[in-house]
Design goal:
The complex is a heterodimer of chains A (286) and B (341). With 286 residues, chain A is an alpha/beta fold. Chain A contains six helices and 16 strands. Chain A has three domains: 97 residues, Elongation Factor Tu (Ef-tu), domain 3 (Beta Barrel), CATH 2.40.30.10; 111 residues, Nucleotide-binding domain of ferredoxin-NADP reductase (FNR) module (Rossmann fold); 46 residues, no CATH class. Chain A is globular and about 50 Å long. Classes of the chains: A alpha/beta (286), B alpha/beta (341). The complex binds flavin-adenine dinucleotide (FAD), flavin mononucleotide and FE2/S2 (inorganic) cluster. The site of FE2/S2 (inorganic) cluster (FES) has 12 residues of chain A, from loops. Flavin-adenine dinucleotide (FAD) binds next to strand 4, strand 6 and helix 2 of chain A.
């Protein structure tokens, strides 16, 4: 895998899409090594900023060359002051960028049938993935879900890449009323899917991984943990993951994730250190 | 020892810029350059080596390692705060054996100068760690993280009591190679940091690292509970810089000859220069690495520029310069012996 770069990019364009902002930026050198599921860390507020920690965003699209050299897009949902600041950037504003980061989605070697599930802005990294799966001749069914219509991202665009597109919203403002996992089992049966790719909130990922396991399909889930560094040096972004040796470890989601096998993450134990974790506290110890 | 000479950043060699001798020492620990990484903010150097050549730094201070593997605490482990952050990692790590086998071996092969940070939950663990490190090649020094709860004494932090602080340092001293530099890393959360400094120096520390994080807390107003799973956490970053500069200053005043590795919120070469002037012979860069992964090397170059701009041709001449008496001024810097009382 190639090294992440630390570069200065420049905003090309900020567009609204529902309740999100799509930010296009120059990112020399990054598109070349980006694979679906990689993310970027973006500095907030300039060099003197009191917001010291970079914010993480999935890489949505890349363009290798063009008028500005390598460019890419991210999709930003305004959450707190960092994402707010980003949404207020304008053309030519500089951005400090580190990326591409993390382990991307693993692509199947064979032309198997795949389902892609995105929750809210979690659909952002699925576009590149859908393209690459289609190029390999895979069937690609897409399920996008959100609380309400304007929190769906990219439904029109992804339709062109998908064999089928199913939409769910909690309030029924678009598609089927309900959750992605209400429709997922039937889609998997119809398409005989072998792999499920998912990106979205933890609760959704846990439910999708459970459906995939039930259907004996492989699942690849991109998680979202709070990250201080994003490059593997601080140990803030950990979650309990079962290794090849069957042992649970607190694993860094920035470098060993954000994409994990759904059957390896101990979803219901996130936010705890399970007692059988490698190096877990023992009686009388720490 | 080879002396690294840095041309201040932004000036080409052709401009005959004043070259600054950046070599320094922490007692017997000689360093070609004065900027190190801070423990816990650079893991064991591998990740940062993707962003810059880690062998150009003064050294890598590795994440505090314990005797046994540790899972660390539950998440959330961090919260951003104004110009800083809180962390409550709980010393997650592989344990000393795997650390020696994998991390230390890599650092040695890479040619980095390595200061190994150790942490224990009782004095005996520190002794055993020192024994494990004895005769292991590739260790330039040991930094003893004493900001850990002593499980044998109601979880009181070693660094907060002169007696427990000195008992740890004594144990590490006894079981280490007598020539091994030993830095005691102090916590600012004490009434009189000079008293703790005195006690660890008497116990055999050859230098002082200061400061570790200071205890803080954030309440999440959405959940209306503590933001960290560990409830309290260590505050770090530029927010704590003035506390750290104060600690360096006070220790330098109390102990004119003890070498100090200064840290706490260093973001620029100018920040690092403050620590040098206050009495540090070298500095560590921690939290700011999360903002700028190449910060340590940038800060090292910026510090060279700061020194040049202020008329220093050697870093060592600037150490403790803020303590000079009123009649000593910078133009005499080459002639005068800097008096530190
Ligand atoms: C791998 C990864 C990919 C992501 N991709 C996207 C994306 O494509 N689009 C998008 O809109 N958001 C994405 N996020 C979430 C995004 O990073 C957060 O929304 C953002 O950090 C919030 O910052 P803030 O200052 O607005 O919020 P604040 O709540 O003020 O942030 C305070 C601190 O908490 C952290 N934080 C808060 N919420 C989150 C969160 N949900 N996940 C991680 N850290 C958080 C921040 O980084 C910051 O350090 C991603 C997160 C990760 C880890
Ligand atoms: C995430 C994180 C982990 C840390 N881990 C350790 C550690 O293992 N051992 C230690 O002695 N200090 C540790 N520290 C403290 C730093 O080494 C440093 O003393 C402190 O953060 C102040 O410097 P800074 O403001 O430059 O970060 C840690 C700090 C942070 C932010
Ligand atoms: S965010 Fe620092 S190790 Fe993952």
């Amino acid at each position: 895998m190639s090294n992440p770069l630390q570069i200065r990019g420049e905003v090309l364009d900020v567009k609204r899409a529902g309740s999100y902002f799509v930010i296009s930026l120059t990112a020399p050198g990054i598109p070349e090594t980006t694979r679906p599921g990689h993310f970027l860390n973006i500095g907030i507020g300039g060099e003197e900023s009191s917001m010291l920690l970079r914010r993480s965003f999935a890489i949505h699209q890349v363009q290798m060359r063009g008028m500005y050299g390598g460019t890419l897009d991210i999709v930003v949902g305004v959450n707190g002051s960092g994402s707010q600041w980003l949404s207020e950037r304008r053309r030519h504003d500089p951005l400090s960028i580190v990326g591409p980061l993390g382990r991307p989605f693993v692509l199947p070697k064979e032309k198997v049938s795949c389902v892609l599930v995105g929750g809210g802005y979690g659909s952002a990294p699925l576009f590149m993935l859908a393209e690459q799966l289609r190029e390999r001749g895979c069937r690609v069914d897409v399920v996008l879900g959100a609380s309400t219509e304007e929190k769906l991202f990219g439904t029109l665009h992804i339709k062109r890449l998908a064999t089928t597109l199913t939409i769910t919203t909690d309030d029924g403002s678009s598609g089927t009323q309900g959750r992605v996992t209400d429709v997922l089992p039937e889609i998997m049966e119809k398409s005989d899917s072998a792999v499920v790719y998912a990106c979205g909130p933890m609760g959704m990922l846990a439910a999708v991984a459970a459906v995939a396991s039930e259907k004996r399909a492989h699942s690849q889930c991109s998680v979202e943990e709070s990250m201080a560094c994003g490059i593997g040096v601080c140990m803030t972004c950990v979650l309990p993951v079962i290794g090849d040796d069957g042992v649970t470890r607190m694993v860094r989601s920035c470098v060993e994730g954000p994409v994990f096998r759904g059957d390896r993450v101990r979803w219901s134990d996130i936010g705890t250190v399970p007692a059988d974790t490698w190096g877990a506290p023992v009686e009388g110890g720490h | 020892m080879t002396r690294a000479v840095f041309s201040p950043a932004g000036q080409s060699a052709a401009e005959s810029s004043p070259e600054v001798d950046m070599s320094t020492s922490l007692g017997s620990l000689e360093l070609p350059a004065p900027v190190l990484t801070a423990s816990g903010c650079a893991a064991a150097g591998r990740e940062l080596d993707q962003f810059f050549d880690i062998t150009e730094l003064g050294g890598i201070v590795t994440k505090s390692v314990m005797l046994q593997p540790r899972s660390g605490r539950a998440t959330p482990r961090m919260a951003e705060t104004p110009s800083g952050m809180l962390n409550s990692i709980g010393l997650q790590g592989p344990g000393i054996d795997q650390f020696i086998e994998k991390d230390l071996a890599w650092l040695e092969q890479r040619g980095a100068r390595t200061i190994v940070s150790i942490a224990g939950s009782n004095v005996d663990e520190y002794s055993k760690l020192a024994q494990k490190l004895r005769n292991v090649p590739g260790i330039a020094g040991i930094e003893v993280n004493i900001s850990c709860p002593n499980v044998e004494n109601r979880g009181l932090v070693f660094a907060c009591h002169p007696d427990s602080a000195s008992s740890v340092i004594q144990a590490v001293r006894r079981f280490s190679d007598p020539k091994m530099p030993i830095l005691a890393k102090l916590s600012p959360d004490v009434t009189d940091i000079a008293e703790i400094a005195h006690s660890v120096v008497r116990a055999g520390a050859t230098g002082i690292s200061v400061m570790n994080t200071t205890l803080g807390m954030v309440i999440n107003t959405d959940t209306m509970r503590p933001a960290l799973a560990g409830v309290t956490g260590g505050l770090s970053g530029p927010a704590i810089r003035p506390i750290a500069v104060r600690c360096v200053w006070q220790i330098r005043k109390a102990l004119p000859d003890i070498p100090i590795l200064g840290m706490g919120g260093i973001r620029t070469g100018q920040d690092a220069f403050q620590f040098i002037l206050a009495g540090a012979s070298a500095v560590s860069v921690g939290t700011v690495v999360f903002n700028d992964p190449s910060a340590p090397i940038r800060i090292q170059h910026e510090l060279a520029q700061q020194l040049a701009d202020h008329g220093f041709s050697r870093l060592s001449d600037a150490v403790s310069y803020a303590h000079r008496s009123a009649d000593v001024e910078i133009l005499d810097v080459d002639e005068v012996e800097i008096e530190v009382e």
